[in-house]
């Protein structure tokens, strides 16, 4: 909802798109994130991420863009950072997130990343705050990750679901996911993958297609991802109510069980 009066001029009423993208990528085990930005952008993102996940600080880096870089480009800095990270940190995946100011100068970041000598896949993403907030960044990062994995439709496991639409920097996410998994287990429903819980393995992402159904926990975060999976893997989805764990409201579980009955192999 749009705020009226002077409240709309307050800064930092929500997290930047770069923070959302970084949160998604850092949920993946062994993924390192390079923020192609001035140092202060990376510091702000790191501060917010570390509130919930202190260990993310160890896998978050910055190209430390200076004023001359805005004129002459960042090719050398980004290349040097990627190659050193690849050599010394041995990541499973590298993600390069470009900030607002760098988006304006027109560097071919994807070309720079392709040309760098790295030992792992590299995803380049425009994640400047001028074009979105936390949610936008998280969704863009997850979709970029799914596209990079070249997912294929697979033989499904009956009855199994993917949980989609939560972030590891949301407060109390662990308890919510655990309770949801317990409820599903009681109904003999297997959780194939939680996208993205902390230390998600790339192999788990690659096996998203094994689930029969996607459960969207948060419509804003999860619906664009579920729609992409429906289009590309023909996986149906159900949007769960918020909050999910109301003692008197389990209609969503009835919907999942009804889907199981209709699709039992």
What is the class of the largest domain in the CATH system?
Answer: Alpha Beta
Point out poorly predicted stretches.
none
The CATH topology of the largest domain is: Rossmann fold
Portion in strands:
5-15%
Order of helices and strands: HEHEHHEHHEHEHEHEHEH
Radius of gyration: 20 Å
Question: Total number of helical segments?
Answer: 11
Can you name the CATH architecture of the largest domain?
Answer: 3-Layer(aba) Sandwich
Helix content: 40-55%
Structural class label:
alpha/beta
How many domain regions? 2
* Biggest sheet features: 4 strands, parallel
Query: Biggest sheet: strands side by side, in what order?
Result: 2-1-3-4
Describe the global form: globular
Taking all residues together, what is the mean pLDDT? 88
Question: What is the fourth-level CATH superfamily of the largest domain?
Answer: Nitrogenase molybdenum iron protein domain
| C-alpha termini separation | 44 Å
Q: Tell me the total number of β-strands.
A: 8
């Amino acid at each position: 909802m749009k705020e009226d009066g002077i409240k709309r001029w307050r800064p930092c009423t929500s997290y930047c798109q770069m923070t959302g993208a970084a949160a998604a990528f850092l949920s993946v085990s062994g993924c390192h994130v390079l923020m192609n930005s001035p140092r202060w952008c990376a510091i702000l993102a790191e501060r917010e991420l570390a509130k919930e996940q202190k260990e993310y600080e160890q896998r978050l880096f910055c190209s430390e863009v200076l004023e001359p870089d805005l004129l002459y480009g960042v090719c050398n800095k980004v290349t040097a950072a990627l190659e050193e990270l690849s050599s010394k940190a041995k990541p499973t995946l590298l993600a390069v997130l470009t900030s607002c100011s760098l988006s304006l100068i027109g560097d071919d970041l994807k070309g720079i990343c392709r040309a760098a000598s790295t030992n792992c896949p590299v995803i380049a993403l425009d994640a400047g705050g001028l074009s979105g907030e936390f949610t936008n960044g998280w969704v863009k990062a997850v979709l970029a990750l799914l596209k990079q994995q070249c997912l294929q439709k697979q033989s499904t496991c009956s009855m199994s679901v993917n949980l989609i639409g939560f972030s590891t920097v949301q407060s109390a996410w662990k308890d919510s996911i655990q309770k949801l998994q317990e409820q599903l287990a009681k109904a003999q429903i297997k959780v194939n993958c939680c996208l993205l819980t902390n230390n998600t393995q790339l192999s788990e992402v690659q096996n998203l297609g094994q689930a029969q159904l996607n459960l969207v926990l948060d419509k804003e975060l999860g619906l664009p991802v579920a729609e992409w999976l429906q289009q590309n893997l023909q996986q149906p989805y159900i949007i769960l109510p918020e909050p999910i764990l109301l003692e008197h409201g389990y209609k969503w579980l009835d919907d999942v069980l009804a889907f199981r009955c209709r699709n039992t192999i």
